[in-house]
Specification:
With 530 residues, this protein is an alpha/beta fold. The protein contains 19 helices and twelve strands.
């Protein structure tokens, strides 16, 4: 299919029907040109209507088949149409979307084949990094904001441990103990299995010492991997992803992840937190003329690998409902079988790059992929193994919401730089952002760790004072001779503190926050007023 240099013949029969299926009247993104019978037909453009991009999609294909360039191509055109975009840059080669592309023989050849008027263009970008790792504006989440379900995924807890972590969050919320970073969570867990704290959870199930130990060890291991910096304040406001530039183009938000690409569960779960946070905050808009944001979820299989049923159900519900808030989500992975069927059923727009069939498992994955497409006049097993780099099999939703005919497509060339920008340009873009001053420096304010530590110190001091007072009273009795009893002294402040208990004192200090639990979303992430 890729060696199609013969001149295109006039379209007729099935090819004409396929081309007619992409002749949309409204605004649409140009993906490429139809491949049929060994030829590329620039007069048969393959497009996707702008209004259906909130119906979600899938970009799949084997390594090296051009998935990243497809994301770049779609991101450019969305930006040009005033739609903000979010991209995760795992390999460090997407930053080039901010700079004009480089003209060359291959670019001109591809443009001529697909009927593209190529023009080198850079697009407005913001660059982010998780917790300040590598280049980018730091993106942090508080532990409370992240929630117990997503945190359990990151810490690789089993179902029982996940439920216990949910109980810990419930208790911290009810007592007004803010979990900002991991040391806050560790302090609350340690307290709840201490002699003083065990009674606190008796009425709602309790926390076993064994489970608490597993959670604490997981937190420690997580921090030793350098992941502690991802949790803290200031917590990132994901509404920043919805901005447009002064010229009306959508801003492309690029999350730089090369520094954490060896921590796949971490970055895939953080992407889900971002999506869940957007879901919490945005109002219902139905089906707008164009999306508010298109979110590309790269390496999607990492999110689903080893996920609990509850976690998968939460993902499915988020994907199903976030469409009505104007957000489109594209999952990016190698084969459709990487995505659970309930989620896959929500993905109406498909761009499938080449698949390889070197092993029996590859052949099985190929057959499974073919079954996810509508019936077509192509021999899809043959087509999918014969596609060249930058070619794909495509079906999208029409303006009426019906699937378009399956079309083998030669994709257009991105107009921005197909590679990373240099480090100096990236650093300048980061520090020149209006968001840099707001998020660059971490803030460590008083939260659960500081409060519990202060209360523990106060209790210890009170106990010492009480012991000293008791000893002094004994000595006073021994030294007194006859003469009536000495009046009983008023209880000291220390005795009052000890008598009240650690958390009774804490409850008084936080006043009206006591007993008010944070309202949580599908994933248990906290809803915050902004």
């Amino acid at each position: 299919m890729s060696a199609s240099e013969q001149p295109p013949a006039a379209l007729g029969g099935p090819a004409a029907e396929i081309a007619a299926g992409y002749a949309f009247e409204g605004a649409a993104l140009d993906l490429g040109a139809l491949l049929w019978d060994g030829a590329c037909h620039p007069d048969a453009p393959i497009r996707i209507p702008l209004p259906v991009l909130n119906r979600h999609g899938l970009v799949a294909g084997a390594t090296g088949t051009g998935k990243t360039k497809t994301l770049q191509l779609i991101a450019e055109q969305l930006s040009a149409n005033g739609v903000p975009v979010f991209l995760a840059d795992i390999k460090g080669d997407v930053s080039g979307v901010s700079a004009p592309g480089e003209d060359g023989e291959k670019v001109r050849e591809r443009a001529a084949q697909v009927g593209q008027e190529w023009r080198a263009t850079g697009f407005p970008c913001e660059f982010y990094g998780l917790g300040g790792t590598g280049p980018g504006i730091p993106v942090r989440a508080t532990v409370t904001g992240f929630g117990p379900v997503l945190l359990s995924k990151v810490l690789q807890l089993n179902q029982t441990q996940e439920q216990s972590l949910g109980l810990i969050f419930h208790y911290a919320d009810a007592k007004g103990l803010e979990l900002v970073d991991l040391k806050d969570l560790r302090a609350v867990v340690a307290f709840l299995v201490s002699d003083t704290g065990k009674a606190e959870l008796k009425g709602i199930g309790g926390l076993s010492t064994v489970t608490a130990g597993v959670i604490l060890r997981s937190i420690t291991a997580f921090e030793q991997q350098g992941a502690g910096g991802f949790f803290g304040e200031p917590e990132f406001d994901t509404a920043a992803f919805l901005r447009t530039a002064a010229d009306g183009r959508g801003i492309v938000s690029v999350l730089e992840l090369p520094a954490v690409q060896d921590k796949p569960q971490l970055f895939s779960t953080f992407l889900m937190w971002m999506l869940a946070d957007l879901f919490n905050d945005l109002p219902e808009v139905g089906d707008p003329e164009k999306p508010k944001l298109v979110f590309f979820f790269d390496e999607a299989h990492l999110l689903f690998s080893g996920a609990s049923k509850a976690f998968l159900a939460s993902i499915t519900q988020t994907v199903r409902l976030i469409r009505s808030k104007g957000i489109g989500v594209f999952f990016v992975t190698q084969t459709p079988k990487d995505v659970p069927s309930d989620v896959l059923a929500q993905l109406g727009n498909r761009v499938q790059h080449a698949l390889r069939a070197f092993t029996p498992d590859d052949a099985k994955a190929l057959k499974a992929t073919v079954r996810t497409f509508p019936k077509s006049p192509y021999d899809l097993e043959e087509v999918l193994t014969g596609l060249g780099t930058g070619e794909a099999v495509i079906t999208v939703l029409s303006e009426k919401g019906a699937p378009t005919p399956v079309a083998a497509t030669r994709l257009r060339a991105p107009e921005s730089l197909m590679g990373p920008v240099d480090a100096a340009a990236l650093d300048a873009a980061v520090k020149g952002s209006p968001l840099y001053g707001r998020y660059a420096e971490a803030v460590d304010r008083e939260s659960a760790y500081e409060r519990l530590t202060a209360e523990q110190q106060a209790a210890e001091a009170a106990a010492l004072d009480a012991a000293a007072a008791k000893e002094a009273e004994k000595e006073g009795k021994a030294g007194r001779q006859g003469g009536g009893r000495a009046p009983k002294p008023e209880p000291s402040l220390a005795e009052q503190v000890v008598g009240s208990g650690v958390f009774k004192s804490l409850a008084r200090s936080i006043g009206t926050q006591l007993g008010r639990e944070i309202s949580r979303s599908i994933f248990g992430t906290a809803r915050r007023k902004r």
